[in-house]
Amino acid sequence: MAAEEIMEIVAESVTSEVFGVWFLIGAALVFFMQAGFAMVETGFTRAKNAGNIIMKNLMDFCIGTVMFVFLGFSLMMSEDYLFGFIGIPNLNIFSDFNGFIQGNASSFVFNLVFCATAATIVSGAMAERTKFASYCIYSAVISLFVYPVEAGWVWNSKGWLVQMGFHDFAGSAAIHSVGGITALIGAMIEGPRLGKYIKDKAGKVKKVNAIPGHSITLGALGCFILWFGWYGFNGAAAWSGSSLASIFLTTTIAPAAATCTTLIYTWVKNGKPDVSMCLNASLAGLVGITAGCDALDAFGSIIVGVVSGILVVAVVEILDLKLHIDDPVGAVGVHLANGVWGTLAVGLLANPQAPAGLEGLLYTGSAKLLGVQSLGIAAILVWTAALMTIVFLIINKTIGLRVSAEEEIRGLDSTEHGLPSAYADFAPAVESLDYGFEGAEAVAGEIPAAEAVPVKKVPTFTEGTPKFTKIEIVCKESRFETLKGALMNIGITGMTVSHVLGCGIQKGKPEYYRGVQVEANLLPKIQVDIVVSKVPVQHVIDAAKKALYTGHIGDGKIFIYDVENVVKVRTGEEGYDALQDVE
Question: Three-state DSSP class for 186?
Answer without folding.
Answer: helix
